[in-house]
């Protein structure tokens, strides 16, 4: 009788364990976390948001490019996190036209940038997703290059009138560290070869590229980077 009781107890123990395991075991269609790695590249259209009591800086968007690597981790259904490490060209394109003189100036500024964004997606079909990413971005200035200087107005010519010239033309970036907010909206196409993502993106810088100390009579109270982009990303899951 004692052995029968032990057998019954063991049977009860294993039966309870099996029931508990079957309750905790995820169903076959349960969500599985996903890591993805890949590359990205695209076009940038940038300007600098200048705020000054001394002059107005009319601008056109400056087309350039950016590219880098992408890492994404989807931790739960519809949510995850996405990071990039990019080489990005920004800057501004000035255009002054007072019907008498046409003056133009263009400067390209290269940054290494690191956005870290929340990733949100919604399924539009079996292989198509609508995606939205948003979060902070930090960057660091690498180099700059003057692409154009066509100064007809003598008041803006730094060669002939250095005392009255717009001296920021000859002033390099004074604040190399850059930070701001970034957001992207796009579509992801999931194939057997990987994911292809086409998105539009916008970055608004919260830091200044030039000094803004009034007591030193700096040109600008604010000089923020602003970048619009169109990007293509390829990810391997």
SS field, number of helical segments: 1
From N to C, what is the helix and strand string? HEEEEEEEEE
CATH class: Mainly Beta
Integer-rounded radius of gyration: 28 Å
> How many distinct domains?
1
In the predicted model, the low-confidence regions spanning at least 5 consecutive residues are: 6-18, 20-25, 160-164
Overall form: elongated
- Quaternary state of this entry equals single chain
| Category by helix and strand content | mainly beta
Straight-line distance between termini: 58 Å
- The strand count comes to 9
The second-level CATH architecture is: Beta Barrel
Question: What percentage of amino acids are in beta strands?
Answer: over 45%
Largest sheet: 8 strands, antiparallel, barrel
Task: Kindly report the spatial arrangement of strands forming the biggest sheet.
Answer: 1-3-4-5-6-7-8-9
**CATH topology, anyone?**
Porin
Mean pLDDT, as a whole number?
83
- The helix content, as a percent range, equals under 10%
Explained architecture:
By secondary structure, the protein is mostly beta strands. It has a single domain (32-236), classed as Porin. It has one helix and nine strands. It has an eight-stranded antiparallel β-barrel. Strand 5 and strand 6 (128-150) form a beta hairpin. The longest helix is centred in the first third of the chain and has 23 residues, at 2-24. The protein is elongated. The relative contact order is 0.18. Mean pLDDT is 83; it is low at 6-18, 20-25 and 160-164.
């Amino acid at each position: 009788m004692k052995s029968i009781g032990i057998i019954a107890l063991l049977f009860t123990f294993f039966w309870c364990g099996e029931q508990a395991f079957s309750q905790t075991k995820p169903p076959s269609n349960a969500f599985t976390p996903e890591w993805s790695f890949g590359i990205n590249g695209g076009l940038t259209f940038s300007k600098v948001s200048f705020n000054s009591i001394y002059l107005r800086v009319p601008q056109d968007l400056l087309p350039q490019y950016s590219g880098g690597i992408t890492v994404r981790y989807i931790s739960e259904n519809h949510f995850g996190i996405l990071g990039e490490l990019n080489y990005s060209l920004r800057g501004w394109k000035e255009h002054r036209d007072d019907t008498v003189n046409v003056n133009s100036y263009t400067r390209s500024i290269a940054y290494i940038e690191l956005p870290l964004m929340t990733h949100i997606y919604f399924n539009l079909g079996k292989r198509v997703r609508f995606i939205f990413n948003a979060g902070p971005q930090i960057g660091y200035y690498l180099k700059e290059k003057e692409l154009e200087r066509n100064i007809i107005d003598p008041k803006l010519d730094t060669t002939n009138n250095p005392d009255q010239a717009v001296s920021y033309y000859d002033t390099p970036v004074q604040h190399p560290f850059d930070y701001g907010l970034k957001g992207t909206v796009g579509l992801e196409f999931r194939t057997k070869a990987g994911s292809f993502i086409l998105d539009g993106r916008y970055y608004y810088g919260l830091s200044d590229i030039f000094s803004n100390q009034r007591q030193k009579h700096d040109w600008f109270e604010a000089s923020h980077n602003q970048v619009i982009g169109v990007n293509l990303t390829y990810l391997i899951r």
